[in-house]
Amino acid sequence: MKKQVVEALENARANLDQAIAGLETIPEIDAETVGYTAHKLKNYLTVVGATAELLEVYLAGHPDEQVRIWIEGLQHAVHLMKHDIGRLMLSANGTEPTFKLEKVDMALLTFRVCNFYRHKAAWKKIQIHSELMPDRCIAWTDRVAVAAVLDNLLSNALKFSENGKEIWVKVHTVQDHIICTVGDEGPGLSVEDQERLFQKGVRLSNSPTGGEPTQGYGLVIAKDLVEKLGGSIWCKSQPGRGAKFHVRLPAFKKSP
To answer: Are both 84 and 108 inside the same structural domain?
Structure first.
């Protein structure tokens, strides 16, 4: 069952990447088409949200606490997507989406993201190593938004790494912050490319090593999410020596 779920998620992501890449071939999209498509997506998300609610009722009282957390994460992701679709439909009131701030074990969350990507990295014979501190890296953040950030960083690390290389993921505490680092053995970034990082739609000089699609929006989304959560993101790299992306998030503070 676990293998089937992972394969389904990978297929869904591949289909989405292909659909987004296809948007670049469209010369112009009129407002009516955007509104129509956004409305359809909203309908689909309504179905997903309703299914999540049914699962919540059906699995109420499940002995595994993670089941509840996964369902709540799914519902929250639907909420965030509906907000962005609402903006496309010109029906949003200009407010930012509401994040669900809570205690998040960043070591556990990162462990799960790494496990998902280890399966995906196998086809390029890339090893993902993790250095985590269980129960000691508790952030005060939104687990869905942070998962999206880590997804972008690990996805990029895989895209730009040659076969047989390695990726390192580290989570540790520095004073009142949690630092997550994703490092790779890719081609690295020139000074010029580093200056253009986190800019919308920018294509850097490096290309994915396995023909994977890239739209130039992942790091923009990551930066936007991290900053709205009160954190920061930056990169350290040298040409030919890989790249390290660092994410700093507020740590959970116990009440005095």
So the answer is: no
Q: Which domain holds residue 29?
A: 2-88
Picking from 192, 221, 186, the residue whose alpha carbon sits closest to that of residue 207 is: 186
Residue 183: give its domain's CATH number: 3.30.565.10
Burial class of residue 1, CB neighbours in 10 A (0-12, 13-18, 19+): exposed
Flag whether 96 is in a domain. no
Give the pLDDT score at 93: 45
E strands along the chain, which residues? 102-105, 127-131, 138-141, 166-174, 177-184, 232-237, 243-250
Domain presence at residue 255: no
| 122 and 231 share one domain | yes
Q: Nearest CA to 41 among 84, 75, 4?
A: 84
Closest to 109 in 3D by CA, of 194, 23, 33, 169? 169
Task: Tell me, yes or no, whether 61 and 133 share the same domain.
Answer: no
State which of 88, 112, 143 marks the end of a domain. Answer: 88
Dihedral sign, CA of 208, 78, 100, 4? negative
Q: Which tens digits make up the pLDDT trace of 37-55?
A: 776 677 677 778 778 888 8
> Rounded distance, CA 100 to CA 91, Å?
22
Mean pLDDT of 9-13: 64
Phi, psi of 59 (to 5 degrees): -100, 15
Instruction: Judge whether 256 lies within some domain.
Output: no
Give the model confidence (pLDDT) of 133-189 as tens digits: 877 899 999 988 898 899 889 989 999 999 999 999 999 999 899 999 999 999 999
The torsion of the CA quartet 43, 48, 53, 59, rounded to 10 degrees, works out to 160
